Amino acid sequence: MRIGILGTGDVGCRLGTKLVSLGNDVRMGSRAAPNPKAAAWAMANGPKASAGTFADAAKFGEVVFNCTAGSVSLEALKLAGADNLGGKVLVDVANPLDFSKGMPPTLTVCNTDSLGEQIQRAFPDAKVVKALNTIGNEVMVKPRLVPGEHDTFLCGNDPQAKAKVVEILRAFGWKSPIDLGDMTAARGLEMMLPVWVRLMGAIQTRNFNFKIAR
Amino acid sequence: MRIGILGTGDVGCRLGTKLVSLGNDVRMGSRAAPNPKAAAWAMANGPKASAGTFADAAKFGEVVFNCTAGSVSLEALKLAGADNLGGKVLVDVANPLDFSKGMPPTLTVCNTDSLGEQIQRAFPDAKVVKALNTIGNEVMVKPRLVPGEHDTFLCGNDPQAKAKVVEILRAFGWKSPIDLGDMTAARGLEMMLPVWVRLMGAIQTRNFNFKIAR
Q1: Rounded distance, CA B82 to CA A185, Å?
Q2: Is B142 a domain residue?
Q3: CATH no. for residue A154?
Q4: ipTM of predicted assembly, 2 dp
């Protein structure tokens, strides 16, 4: 499968590398190309990895991952282009975190709206699926880093797009992703971030995850 | 120990009954006494259970539980009286849920503030501890209802008050409550409610709980 990754941070690199290792062709996009981080990532990941602009990556991908900082995601997606995203599965991994007032971060949107919903409204022809935003980037692609069973969640308005994302999550090692329903569930998923940050402080590791005991 | 319970709903009754069964003297408070629900609860729970106004219950308790609806908690606590709460451990179990716009509920306060913080600011002489708000009321007092290990959280500004609440949680069956720090962590704990509600819908039971796999 051809996959576009928007964003060259830890999340984008981690997901890109895993997706290449699973046999996909992956193009990493950044605001301006050439971008040193994207070029280094592509170099390190062999012939199935490439780099370009946000628009290049979005056009290339059959599935596109939004791995940009939540505070600039809408702007980055505009640069990627509505035409390049139309009809495609757009996996929104971002969190609308605001670090401008120091730690712990607050959210730029929550409660009655969410970044996932904002993206779906701004790009009505994309099939947006919120996923992986509640998990540290190392654990995203290697669930076994955290002992025992634990959970990953997704939501979105398009059942087929969610089925495609579940397939990708299973390839990452997630056995039974929990589907929370339509995109309004992104409010709850994004609002898990404040407690995630406090938990990281309390237990002194990023390698933890939520399990829904039942 | 003498315990005051503010609120006659499912949470107040469940906690009150458990606390009586553990050998405590418990007074349940309501806006106006006599209150039929509080009277029935007291009758059903024998000589260690009693009922009165919010102020009666707050005055009676060495530890006081706020089990009122989050949307009216500040008002209920004012009726309980700052003098009756001063110097005491006030366990805030409430969530600031707003059901006025239908399901799923939104929060009346979140992100940059929380109900726990509002209560601590309004009653600076009380030792407020946020606890149990992320757990369905049956599971609160009977963790074994949910299979396997799973977690309960608390936060607050007073270490001794938190130690007292940990003691009570252990008596309920919670082995290792996770202390998330000062009262600002109540933001994260209360913001878990939206995903809690979606999870309840997705897995069709209230008898689930978060475990922090690590």
Answers
A1: 39
A2: yes
A3: 3.40.50.720
A4: 0.96
